[in-house]
Amino acid sequence: MLLKSVLVGNFSYFDKTTKELELKVNLLDPENKPANLKIPPVKLPLPNEGGDIGFFLELGNLEFSKTGNYKFEVEMNGEALGEYKFQVGLIN
């Protein structure tokens, strides 16, 4: 099964001493194990005054070997920022 996915997010940061954030996205399979997808972490330079950051990640030709509930996990500097759950099924 192949799928195209777009993951969009927005967050605010208030720590004016932080100069850079590391955004990491993981895809977990129905058994909560890492799926066969390697997304390298993205380093985001930050302005000194704090503010909002938006991100847009487009993934094409994702291959799913089995049906079930999957999820994207988003981490920022090693801490969980959020997750998005979705189901992969067969189309008749």
Nutshell version of this structure?
With 92 residues, the chain is mostly beta strands. It contains no helices and six strands.
Q: Can you put this structure into words, describing what you see?
A:
There is one protein chain. The protein has no helices and six strands. It has a single domain (2-88), classed as Immunoglobulin-like (Sandwich), CATH 2.60.40. The two termini are 13 Å apart. The chain is elongated, with a radius of gyration of 15 Å. With 92 residues, the chain is mainly beta. The strands form two sheets. Strands 3-2-5-6 form a four-stranded antiparallel beta sheet, with no helix packed on it.
Which features characterize this protein?
elongated, two-stranded antiparallel ribbon, 0% helix, mainly beta
- How many DSSP-defined strands? 6
The overall average pLDDT, rounded, is 84
Portion of residues in helices? Answer: under 10%
Terminus-to-terminus distance: 13 Å
Radius of gyration: 15 Å
Give helix and strand order, one letter per element, not per position.
EEEEEE
Strand content: over 45%
Tell me the major beta sheet: 4 strands, antiparallel
**Main sheet: strand order:** 3-2-5-6
* Uncertain spans: none
CATH classification, class level? Mainly Beta
Helix-strand blueprint:
Blueprint: E1 2-13, E2 20-28, E3 42-45, E4 51-63, E5 68-76, E6 79-88
